[in-house]
Amino acid sequence: MSYIGEIAEEMYSIFPFQESFFDRHLPVWHYTSASGLMGILENGQNCGKMKLWFSRSDCVNDISEGKNVLSFVKDVAKELFEKHEICKEIFEICMQAEIPSDRLLVYDCKDENTLKPSKLVKMMPCEAFICCFSSATDSLDMWRYYSKNDGGYALRFDLSSFELQMNKQLEKIKEPITSQSFFVIYDDKEKKEYVKKILVEANKVFLMKAERVFNYDGINAYISEAIKMLQYRFKHNCFSSEKEFRTIVYLPKEKPANYIGNLFPIKYRAQRGLIVPYVEIELNICQIKEIKISPYLQDKNAQKALESYVQQCDANTIIISRSTLPVRD
To answer: Cα torsion at 155, 156, 157, 158 (round to 10°)?
Structure first.
């Protein structure tokens, strides 16, 4: 293993960013409009299946999406450097840091020498596509934001089975793709503490090693990776009521050299006047455990119509319920 590889392995033993730290027995809800629900269930045309939509990161509700992390890294680095808790080298790395778009992808290609099919693992510039959930059950804020104008519904998923099938489904996809899942961090103090721990530990590893040139490169790569892994985990605190859990898929911006086949298809839909790029991931419809009807949808026929629609979609095990919030339409 290279010296840089040893540094990376040592840092990842402290902060395994690829792992998801959360209670997998928690239920999460996907709030959506009536048209969104019908799109997910495909209007009953593909019985037993559903499709989740992952919107490109620059088209979600937070216009600072993906940019929040860099300011925290630089602010915390400045504070630590002034208190002599990190060295000059770590401080300079943080001040010069940028948000990398590269992600590690595995894909099929032709070997340049033998021209035979083979697997290639490569860092490539990628775009992020996000599917959002909430741990908030029957949340008035979520109903207001996502479904007030169109009635609205909330779909309940159980994280343990959802993650398991999501991972299996991604493994079946032949196109270059990778993913992340986690709960979002909103609290600024929590963000700072998270970044502080990363930088202090990076500083310890840096000072313990004698070969500073190679060590510098390894720590630089690690901090860059940390920024990348936290990029979509930090979100502005004004959105804290969302209590968001998100799954992200990353797709290459351009077709890799020697790649066999086409890229994963990107589709487009209209939403609030915008044309939104998105991708679809197909799952078994049994992943939806419950559909809750918005408090703004008080029509007495709403539940009967939904039950009939769900039955047509071959999803008889889904529980249909109504919001208990005393909201006037």
So the answer is: 180
Q: How does pLDDT run across 5-38, given as a tens digit for each residue?
A: 555 555 556 555 544 455 667 899 999 988 889 8
Tell the residue number behind the tokens 């680095």, with chain if given: 77
Run of H or E residues at 13: helix 3-14
CA distance linking residue 144 with residue 149, whole number of Å? 8
3-state secondary structure of 44: helix
CB-CB neighbours of 198 under 10 Å: 22
pTM of the model: 0.86
The two tokens of residue 312 are 């047509």
Q: HSE of 42 in the Cβ direction (CA atoms, 13 Å)?
A: 18
Is residue 114 classed as helix, strand or coil in its secondary structure?
Answer: coil
DSSP 93-104: HHHT-----EEE
29 forms beta bridges with: 134, 156
Task: Tell me the two tokens of residue 83.
Answer: 């208190």
Q: Where are the alpha helices (DSSP H) in 44-137?
A: 68-82, 88-95
Beta strand 290-293 pairing with 319-322: parallel
